[in-house]
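Q: Sequence in, structure out?
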Amino acid sequence: MKKLFLLLIAVFMFTGTASYAAVNINTATQAQLETLQGIGPAKAKAIVEHRKKKGLFRSVDDLQNVSGVGPVTVKRLRKDISVGGAPTVKKEHKAVARQ
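A: Exactly. Output:
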């Protein structure tokens, strides 16, 4: 029983409390873009408008072409965004007590 308890603790330590997948800047809604750190309503709207006018982003670096988004912002967001796959947002995992 003690080994099982230690194994469960180890699993929780390695998985963490939140899972995260990149937000696809080519398909994400304004609300999904606003989940990104440092992207508020104005920048999210600018990203969506830029995408509508100019087409899809070919790379994460193309985000710098959006007014108000510079290299520092892209560098900070690089791990949190993508240009492919389904748009995904941060999901919090909650432990469920079993009875």
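The chain has a mean pLDDT of 80.
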